[in-house]
Design brief:
Layout (H helix, E strand, L loop, with lengths): L1 H20 L15 H25 L5 H8 L1
Length: 75
């Protein structure tokens, strides 16, 4: 867990620094001026996609361990 967090921080910290240094004030929305807003929005979006896909995989795609054994017993 710590290794993953370290890798995420190694990737995100330079992106936030670049975002802070390379500012363009041509935003059309109020939140466009918030530093690192789009980096955080992307991170949150990716986390939500992963969590939803894990939930779908667990409840929709994954079968029980004895799924095929039950079919054999019914025959």
């Amino acid at each position: 867990m710590r290794r993953r967090l370290l890798i995420v921080l190694i990737v995100l910290i330079p992106l936030v620094i670049i975002d802070l240094l390379w500012r363009e004030s041509h935003g059309h929305f109020a939140w466009s001026g918030i530093p690192a807003f789009y980096a955080l929005l992307g991170l949150i979006g990716c986390v939500v996609i992963v969590l939803i896909s894990k939930w779908l995989g667990h409840h929709w795609l994954q079968k029980e361990h004895d799924y095929y054994e039950e079919e054999r017993l019914d025959e």
